[in-house]
Write a structure and sequence with these properties.
Order of helices and strands: HEEHEEHHEHHEHHEEHHEHEH
Helix content: 25-40%
Strand content: 15-25%
Largest sheet: 10 strands, antiparallel
Number of strands: 10
Number of helices: 12
Radius of gyration: 22 Å
Shape: elongated
Length: 332
Amino acid sequence: MGTETESDYSEAEGISLAAIERCTSSKLPLILPWHPKQTIPLGTLFYSQRPADPWARNNPFDTYSLVSTPIIINRDDGTDSSFRSESTSRTSDTHDHLSLGFGVGAGLPFLAEVSVKGTYDKDVTENKDANKSSIRSSVRAGSVTFARQPRLSTEAIITVKYDGGLPAFHARYGDYYLAGYKLGGDTGLMISGSNSSKKELERFGITVKVEVLFVEASTTHTKDFVTTQAGGSLKLVGYDTLDHRTWKSSEEGHGNVASKLRYQAAEVITAAQALDMRVAEKLDELGIQDGDHLNAEDCNKLTESGLVVELVLLPVGTLREVIEWVIEDDII
């Protein structure tokens, strides 16, 4: 299946309501961060303008075609690893520290409460400290897609052709459909300080140079985490999508502070540096090989394992049959 979730569809910038509006007005794919608490079956329809309750109850696909269309895993599709670090010194500089591929999580009610990245982004946007340092690690390890597009039901075809066209189709079924899952994981961490200087936070190890993801998180770098000025404070927030986990703590600065923060920072850094290996191990544990045909139970296991890190939604206007029936002159 080469077409529907390949890298020529660039990932939407941070998914907020404004970002969704930009994508939908331009007929771009939507890439939504996901979580292990709910499996959404491929082929489910989505209302982009109904953020509080976006998943459709009606489906335009023929029932037999939908259940019989093969679902395959491609472990080489879109594979990528990335690392990013940021350090800022103004209270308003929060955008640079938001989680990869999410943006303002609170803008999407159906995600903000259940996504660890939504929780993290909410904490970041509410943080009023001037000095902030963060790291984020991201791994993509393949995709799950239909082998081909399911066929439309007769009712859906009639809607497109005779009963209002594409606007009526959108109103009845939704304007996007779930075309695939992206597999992988994201880990991130932000440290901020009220009285700490930018340099102190950098010494605390959280902007930690790129090398921190390639060395063992041990006493070597936890013991170098600096103390803050007396009376100052440090805050830590972090997330890991693979284990569906968040971190949040703060400590006042009196002498050697941040013993708890040191431990938690090392914990997140360890998770980040091993992200590639952790993702590969989870895939191997499930016994799913490249090119395998998956059933609903397999998709559920992938989601529950935390491996479904993003959902790929495509405009229904890109479905071949929708295009054909919009321009087709034949009577059904």
